[in-house]
């Protein structure tokens, strides 16, 4: 889409008037879309929205679209609401997440973070294309907690705060929630009773070496999507 170009001069200002403007523009886009939220329809709405807003907002609208266009498309397709979108973009601040309590790794590993981790990795897997770059994965990791249920968002933030570098490196190799969260240390390693099953903990290099290994490690879908052409 030609209208959505890389960033110009949109300043990220948390808690500023930019937050109000962002939410207003996203709400206008939503009203144009109705229930139609395919990527093509979102792109079409973004190309039009600035022309239907009051002239006083035209420049800010164009700056928002030029700077964050692709992120807005991705988030609208996933049916994120205006507040969530503008918070993820860094233009609004979620007061409930302004302070993230610092926790020790031992607290996280013992504190029921396994399901939280898996949910975050599933979201990341859903938005990343095959062969995603490290920068794209870092961006997805930082956004992931905005999409988990509010009741576990604080735990998700704490998890990312502690493990972001490790998560990114693991996600460069594989996007399997069980494997990633086990390697991070927040999920227990499954007890394997069958001879040779411990090799499944070696990761995708073993899983995807052939169909037999993929079947043994229950990783056929992963290998087809992310490794095999």
TrEMBL record:
Transmembrane segments: none annotated. Its main location: secreted. It is found in: Secreted, Extracellular space, Surface film. Keywords: Disulfide bond, Gaseous exchange, Glycoprotein, Repeat, Secreted, Signal, Surface film. GO terms for biological process: respiratory gaseous exchange by respiratory system; sphingolipid metabolic process. One of its GO terms (cellular component) is extracellular region. Homodimer; disulfide-linked. It comes from the Eukaryota. This is Pulmonary surfactant-associated protein B.
